[in-house]
Write a structure and sequence with these properties.
The chain is α/β, with parallel strands linked by helices. The chain has two domains: about 10-205 and about 330-375, Rossmann fold; about 230-315, formyl-coa transferase, domain 3 (2-Layer Sandwich). Helix content is about 40%, strand content about 15%. The chain has 15 helices and eleven strands. The chain has helices at about 15-25, 55-60, 75-85, 100, 105-115, 140-145, 165-185, 195-205, 205-215, 250-260, 275-280, 280-295, 300-305, 325-330, 370-375, and strands spanning about 10, 30-35, 65-70, 90-95, 120-125, 190-195, 230-235, 240-245, 310-315, 335-340, 340-345. A six-stranded parallel beta sheet has the order 3-2-1-4-5-6, with helices on both faces. Strands 7-8-9 form a three-stranded antiparallel beta sheet, with helices on one face. Helix 1 packs across helix 7 and helix 7 packs across helix 8.
Length: about 375
């Protein structure tokens, strides 16, 4: 029996953040009922057609859920929704600002009738303050929190290449819901859980904010290199490929000099002996490393670094993820059915001994409408 079997979640959700949270709950055995707009559904269904005609976003985020099409402004459909909520353990919503209150689906209204309910709201900027009514999308929150300023090259800021603001928010919502369910199991009361995208990303941005605020230094954009640790980033090898390495301590720098660069004289050089000096002189370190790698191919360099105990990585493309030798060797992929065909789905990162996550199919729009209407008919 999975940990959340017997737990029912009603999800009024769109896009990435909330569906990411509820998919984790589904993988743990929860029954997740996804309420979708008739004829259109979750708008992430239309983001692309990359996975057998389905959206890569939707397939990633919605396995294991039941889909029902409801017009929640229609009285008959609203009765179905109310019936589902009356038996639910958790309600999750990320509707546009103000909509949940207008519809009477806010935490105060629902928990007044059922104090044991766990109600989780996901928003862009929180429920008060001057930004409370603003729409928020992943890139925009990256901008507001300084993440875009901290990412990219010296010449151009860049967004992070994945929906990092949504993912961060979804993970905090997931952990908040689990915390509330644990507390309810002990005390019987539900909880009102709120997660704002700006808060989630701001938490992740505190270190660069500290560095700039208390260090008096503007955040530097350093491309694929680390802004405050050196050497840490990509280095070209003799075959034209790149190998990334990261030095985390002065001891590792000494080991790199002796065992990889074959330049023991650099270990005690005052320009490089401590990390702040290495960061300031990284432009001098890069040619030293690349000169040492110039006669070797990337595989040989990785073997040399591994033997020396220096953390390193190959630069891989996203398409290589499904065949990554470490993921394959550890049997981390499962086949999951979607409307257009079978897809490879990655197991959740948390491994619980003796338990296999549910990993159920990705629903077609309204696939479970008839069954759910029959179940929850008044």
């Amino acid at each position: 029996m999975l940990p959340l079997e017997g737990t029912t979640v009603v999800a009024l959700e769109q896009a990435v953040a909330a569906p990411f949270a509820t998919r984790q709950l589904a993988d743990l055995g929860a029954r997740v009922i996804k309420v979708e707009r008739p004829g259109e559904g979750d708008f992430s269904r239309g983001y692309d057609r990359a996975v057998h005609g389905d959206s890569s976003y939707f397939v990633w985020l919605n396995r294991g859920k039941e889909s029902i099409e409801l017009d929640i402004k229609d009285p008959a459909d609203r009765r179905v929704l109310d019936a589902m909520i009356s038996t639910a353990d958790v309600v999750v919503q990320n509707l546009v600002p103000g909509a949940v209150e207008r519809l009477g689906l806010d935490a105060a209204t629902l928990r007044a009738a059922r104090p044991e309910l766990v109600h989780c709201s996901i928003s862009g900027y929180g429920t008060d303050g001057p930004y409370r009514a603003k729409k928020a999308y992943d890139l925009l929150v990256q901008c507001e929190t300084g993440l875009v300023t901290a990412t990219g090259t010296p010449d151009e800021p860049c967004k992070v290449g994945i929906s990092v603001a949504d993912i961060a928010t979804g993970m905090y919502a997931y952990s908040g819901i689990l915390t509330a369910l644990l507390d309810r199991a002990r005390h019987g009361n539900g909880a009102t859980v709120e997660v704002a995208m700006i808060d989630a990303v701001a938490e992740w941005m505190v270190q660069p904010a500290y560095y700039a605020t208390y260090g008096g230094l503007e955040t530097r954009r350093t491309g694929a290199k680390h802004a405050s640790i050196a050497p840490y980033g990509p280095y070209e090898t003799g075959d034209g490929n790149q190998v990334f390495l990261g030095i985390q301590s002065d001891r590792e720098w000494v080991r790199l000099c002796h065992e990889v660069l074959r330049r023991p004289d650099l270990a005690g050089d005052r320009r490089f002996a401590r990390n702040p000096e290495r960061v300031a002189n990284d432009h001098l370190i890069t040619p030293l490393i690349e000169s040492a790698f110039a006669t070797s191919d990337a595989d040989s360099v990785v073997r040399l670094l591994d033997a020396a105990g220096i953390a390193c990585a190959r630069l891989r493309r996203p398409v290589e993820l499904v065949t990554h030798p470490q993921l394959v060797a550890r049997d981390r992929w499962r086949q999951v059915h979607a409307a257009g065909g079978v897809v490879q789905a990655l197991l959740p990162p948390v491994v619980i001994a003796g338990q296999e996550p549910a990993m159920k199919p990705v629903p077609a729009l309204g696939e479970h409408s008839d069954a759910l209407r029959a179940e929850f008919a008044s």
